[in-house]
UniProtKB/TrEMBL annotation:
Stated name of the protein: Class I SAM-dependent methyltransferase
Region (Disordered): 1-26, 70-91
UniProt entry keywords in alphabetical sequence: Methyltransferase, Transferase
Single GO molecular function: methyltransferase activity
Taxonomy, superkingdom: Bacteria
InterPro entries linked: DNA_methylase_N6_adenine_CS, N5-glutamine_MTase, SAM-dependent_MTases_sf, Small_mtfrase_dom
Coiled coil (UniProt feature): none
SUPFAM superfamilies tied to this protein: S-adenosyl-L-methionine-dependent methyltransferases
């Protein structure tokens, strides 16, 4: 646990320092309010000085936006190499997050935010952080993310395949890209599952919100075991399973990847890009060295019933970015002594795939999401 210190009206203050993306404790912290100019705030943040905001909440949001505009004025570096472009983009994004993360707010006991015109953030913080352990300082940028996640949790995300809404929690990857859900909803089930639905079993590895487990249950699979390594995801999946009234069909288990026993169908939608995440939200997208992908392939044969299938849902974005080759994926499948039965492809429908201003637009526009049907 780190403690942050600052001086206000000649009095020394301190509180717990909290950062979901493990940002280090600022070297120096000063108090700032509505008199702070954007240029001064930007300069001090770039120099490593954190600004603990004591003014109006809406003015703080405007200051954060103004600092972001100053960062964006610098033209991004580019390369002819897709992989170098990706790493340059990631570095720029991380640097941007570091500078904007220097604008801080103090949350008092029970997550009270005492700034003028501040919203009530207590419920959102309780859901994201758990019970309060006393005053703590967080970046305003992180707090806004917590508030946004709270709204998603309240309203939910429409999943047409289920005819219902899924409710993601803070730090759990939200199924905003529906193409991978549709692949699981429409790919023909393995013969053993179709012929004996009353005794069929499926595993959903890395379940997140539980959306794919719910899709499998809706398709008639009698028993679904959903796993995840994230404690937040396990809580989120259990709540959604209860909301869908599927607790008699879906068991949420973990933390871990594979459950005990074998299944007729094992579904895995691992993070698609082999890179290091910078926070809990990114863990659904980035996975260093494709650890989850290789763990799934290595353990699949031992967890399949005779005639069973493993469904790997994977984008080829990493291939277009030069982070992984198709041959490397095929070699990993072969090393695991698996056979490719079929591959069903679909094109992404999310807005970024059509955004020409996106630094990774060339790769995103060529992206294909595939469901690989694998057998032992």
């Amino acid at each position: 646990m780190s403690t942050i210190h600052w001086t206000e009206t000649h009095t020394r203050h301190s509180a717990r320092w909290h950062s979901e993306n493990a940002s280090p404790l600022p070297r120096r912290t000063v108090v700032a309010d509505d008199r702070m100019k954007a240029n001064d705030a930007y300069r001090q943040a770039c120099e490593g000085t954190a600004l603990l905001w004591q003014g109006d909440f809406h003015n703080a949001r405007q200051l954060l936006q103004a600092m972001g505009r100053r960062i964006d004025r610098k033209p991004p570096k580019s390369s002819t190499s897709p992989s170098k472009n990706f790493h340059l983009h990631r570095r720029r994004s991380n640097d941007r997050a570091g500078v904007l993360g220097m604008l801080l707010v103090l949350l008092d006991d029970d997550y009270t935010l005492t700034l003028r015109r501040a919203p009530n953030v207590r419920q959102a913080c309780l859901q994201a952080y758990g019970p309060s352990k006393g005053p703590m300082v967080v970046s305003l940028r992180e707090l806004l993310g917590v508030l946004g996640a709270h709204q998603w949790r309240l309203k939910g995300i429409d999943v047409p395949t289920l005819g219902a809404r899924i409710h993601p929690h803070y730090g759990v990857f939200a199924p905003v890209r529906g193409e991978y859900v549709d692949l699981v909803a429409h790919t023909p089930l393995p013969p053993a599952t179709r012929h004996s639905p009353a005794t069929s079993t499926a595993f959903d590895l890395g379940t997140g919100t539980g959306v794919l487990a719910a899709v499998l249950a809706h398709r008639g699979i009698n028993r679904v075991v959903a796993t995840d390594i994230s404690a937040r995801a396990l809580v989120c999946a259990r709540e959604n399973v209860h909301r869908f009234a599927l607790t008699d069909r879906i068991e949420v288990s973990g933390p871990g990847l594979f459950p005990e026993d074998r299944a007729d169908l094992v579904v895995c939608n691992p993070p698609w890009l082999p890179a290091r995440p910078t926070g809990p939200i990114e863990q659904g997208v980035y996975d260093p060295d494709s650890t989850m992908l290789h763990s799934f392939l290595a353990g699949l044969s031992a967890h399949l019933r005779p005639g069973g299938e493993g469904w790997l849902i994977l984008s080829d974005l990493a291939e277009h970015l030069g982070l992984r080759t198709r041959q490397q994926l095929l070699d990993a499948i072969q090393v695991a002594q698996l056979r490719v039965v079929d591959k069903i492809d679909t094109k992404p429908r999310h807005p970024r795939s059509k955004d020409a201003a996106d630094p990774l637009h060339i790769a995103r526009s060529a992206e294909t999401t595939s469901l690989w049907r694998l057998t032992a």
